[in-house]
Amino acid sequence: MTDNNTIHPDLPVGNIVSIGTVLDSSDTLSRAVEALQNTPSRGVLVMHNGYYFGLLTDAEVARALATDPAMTAGEASAREVPVIPADTPCRDALRTLAEADLPALPVVARDGRLLGAISRAELLETLYRRRRPASIGGMATPLGVYLSDGIHRGGVGDLALILTGVFLFIGSLLSAAVALGVVFAWRRLGLAGIIPDPWIITPAFLLAFAA
Length: 211
Fold this sequence. Notes:
alpha/beta, CBS-domain, three-stranded mixed sheet
């Protein structure tokens, strides 16, 4: 039976790899401690000349500090760590990560260049997150409703959108004409000195309403 919540099991890990914090092999342990504090996965990659060198976890740092605080990140890092090629499917990468019992594993290109790391949480989110329905927006037009999710569209066609724009433009012209007519009649009837001018009333009313 297929789990409808499982998606992209064969998606390559290179598509979801995260860069995160990467240490150079010559960095100090104090720099490693700082990096680990800002890394949710509790594992930091160590590289040398752009290539993967090792994985440094809080356990390795603790052992190194207890043994020789002057050690570098490269000297303290674990070297016997599985490396995941970028074209490895997410499902296989999760199995490798579970067998290694590590918070994250390095992801490398075919030539060995370090691309980043993949964590257990990232793999689980990719494999078992629920598929969210696309958000759809709609707009009423004289010919019906126009629907779109940003990529696909349905309902009425472009003619309806054009007519909507034309009607809105005509409506704005009519509104302006009515407003000018009211002001003209106001002054024509000699009410300007008795009742405040509409040009003054309207902004004042809008400000009072907004407040």
